[in-house]
Amino acid sequence: MKQEQLHFFKTTVEELLSQASLKQMQSYTQHGDISTLTHSILVAYYSYAMNCHLHLHSDEKSLITGALLHDYFLYDWHEKEKWHKWHGFRHANFAYHNALRDFNINAKEAEIIRKHMWPLTIIPPTCREAWVVNAVDTFSSVMEVLIAHRIFHTLKRKYMHHPLTVLGVSI
């Protein structure tokens, strides 16, 4: 990515991270030892990078915002609760309602959050930003599971290092 693109990404993410409610995601584990916040930052970064690299001409701010909020469900889905059994099918809706409550999201951001689990959401995304986040989130989840199971020892460093150092986050 070019310097101005990295600056735009960093500025957009830091603006959202300035809100304490988003930082709650750091308290919840996504896959292995990766927090939901770290996962969402990675999805936002790689979604934006894909958009830039492939010249997809997406609404970049909505893409980053929706990607950062796509898993804003704010609970530990690993706990043995009966209603967590359907997490894969239901958490997008929880994240959507939490984002509506805590942020001023637009229609594309809402679409990204609500449809990031397609095909589990049944109705496919209707905007390119949601398709990008859906693809990157799926890829990121697979990478994080591989990291958690130590299938590739160097994967964590290669996959996670750069996006987080851009924001000054240590892993």
Spatial order of the strands forming the largest sheet: 1-2
CATH class: Mainly Alpha
Average pLDDT confidence is 83
| Shape assignment | globular
- The CATH architecture assignment turns out to be Orthogonal Bundle
Give the N-to-C terminal Cα separation: 21 Å
- Give me the Rg, rounded: 15 Å
Which fold name fills CATH's third level, the topology?
Answer: Hypothetical protein af1432
Structural class: mainly alpha
Helical amount: 55-70%
Number of strands: 2
Topology order in helix (H) and strand (E) letters = HHEEHHHHHH
What is the number of helices? Answer: 8
Weakly predicted, low-confidence segments: none
The biggest beta sheet reads: 2 strands, antiparallel
As an assembly, this protein is single chain
Protein name: HD domain-containing protein
Organism: Amedibacillus hominis
InterPro entries: HD_domain
Domain HD: 36-138
3D architecture notes:
- Residues 36-138 form the HD domain.
- This is HD domain-containing protein.
- InterPro entries: HD_domain.
- There is one protein chain.
- This protein is mostly helical and 171 residues long.
- The longest helix is centred in the last third of the chain and has 21 residues, at 128-148.
- The protein is globular and about 45 Å long.
- The mean pLDDT is 83.
- Strand 1 (29-31) and strand 2 form a beta hairpin.
- It starts with a helix and ends in a 5-residue tail after the last helix.
- The protein has one domain (3-166): Hypothetical protein af1432.
- 37% of the residues are buried.
- Strands 1-2 form a two-stranded antiparallel ribbon.
- The chain is 62% helix and 3% strand.
- It is built from eight helices and two strands.
